[in-house]
Write a structure and sequence with these properties.
- The chain is an alpha/beta fold and 222 residues long.
- It has one domain (2-211): Metallo-beta-lactamase, Chain A.
- It is built from 4 helices and 13 strands.
- A 7-stranded mixed β-sheet has the order 1-2-3-4-5-6-7, with no helix packed on it. It has a 6-stranded mixed β-sheet with strand order 8-9-10-11-12-13.
- Helix 3 (171-181) crosses helix 4.
- It starts with a strand and ends in an 11-residue tail after the last helix.
Length: 222
C-alpha cells in the first residue's frame, strides 16, 4: 500500500518493507519471498530467531547495507559479510536522509521472554510527512504514553501492533493500544507464519478497530 508517497509491504510474521525516495528498508524480515528487493537498511528489534533471522538478513542485504540491532544480536550478525552493523539502544536516533529512526522501548509484562532489562526495541521512523511506529514484541507499556500526541498532529501516524496473545499483546490489548495512540492507520503484525498468531487474530483486530472508530487494515504478504 502507498501512504503519503511511502510504499509499505508486508513481508510476513512481523516483517515489513518500506520504500521511499529510491531507498528500501526492512524491519524484522523472516522467511521473506524471493520477490523482495535488496535493501539499504534493516532494523532488528531483538535476538529471537523469528526477528533476527540471519538467513533473511543475508538474503536482503547488499554490500554496505546498514543493520541496526540491540546488543544481543551482535554476535549472530557478525556472520553476515558486507553489512555495516550498528548496535543501538533505547533513545538512540539515526538520520539516514530518507528516513529518521528513533529507538524506543519494547517489552512484555505478561511474558518473561521479553523482559524490560533485555533492552529490546521498537522503532519510530519518520519518512516525509508520515511517522511509522513499529511496536516490536511488546505489551502495552507506560513508555507508549509519549506517543499519544502523534495521532493528534497533522502528520500521518501509522502504527504496527502485534496481535499474538500469550507471547505479546493479544487482539483486545492491541485494539486498546490503538485507541490510546489514535493513529491515522493501525496495521496488525505477528501472525500467519506458524510461530504464533493467526490470520484470524489479524482479521479480528481490524474488525474490532473499526467498531471503535479506528482505521485499520491488514496487508497482503508479498
Amino acid at each position: 500500500m502507498n501512504i503519503a508517497n511511502v510504499r509499505v509491504d508486508f513481508l510476513g510474521h512481523a516483517g515489513f518493507l518500506f520504500s521511499f525516495r529510491g531507498k528500501n528498508f526492512a524491519i524484522d524480515p523472516y522467511h521473506v519471498s524471493d520477490f523482495v528487493p535488496k535493501v539499504d537498511v534493516i532494523l532488528i528489534t531483538h535476538g529471537h530467531s523469528d526477528h533476527c533471522s540471519i538467513r533473511d538478513v543475508q538474503k536482503l542485504s547488499k554490500h554496505g547495507t546498514v543493520v541496526l540491532c540491540p546488543v544481543d544480536c551482535q554476535s549472530a550478525l557478525l556472520k553476515v559479510k558486507g553489512i555495516n552493523m550498528e548496535v543501538v539502544e533505547v533513545g538512540d536516533a539515526i538520520d539516514f536522509g530518507f528516513a529518521k529512526v528513533e529507538c524506543v522501548h519494547a517489552y512484555t509484562t505478561s511474558n518473561p521472554r521479553h523482559a524490560k532489562q533485555e533492552g529490546w526495541l521498537g522503532y519510530l521512523a519518520k519518512m516525509g510527512s508520515t511517522i511509522f511506529y513499529f511496536a516490536g514484541d511488546t505489551d502495552y507499556i507506560p513508555e507508549m504514553q509519549h506517543l499519544t500526541g502523534y495521532g493528534k498532529k497533522e502528520n500521518n501516524f501509522v502504527v504496527f501492533l502485534p496481535v499474538a496473545g500469550g507471547v505479546v499483546m493479544d487482539v483486545k490489548s492491541a485494539v486498546d493500544v490503538a485507541a490510546r495512540l489514535n493513529p491515522t492507520l493501525a496495521i496488525p503484525m505477528s501472525y500467519g507464519s506458524g510461530v504464533y498468531g493467526t490470520e484470524r487474530d489479524a482479521q479480528l483486530f481490524v474488525e474490532m478497530c473499526k467498531q471503535n472508530g479506528i482505521n485499520a487494515q491488514m496487508l497482503t504478504k508479498i
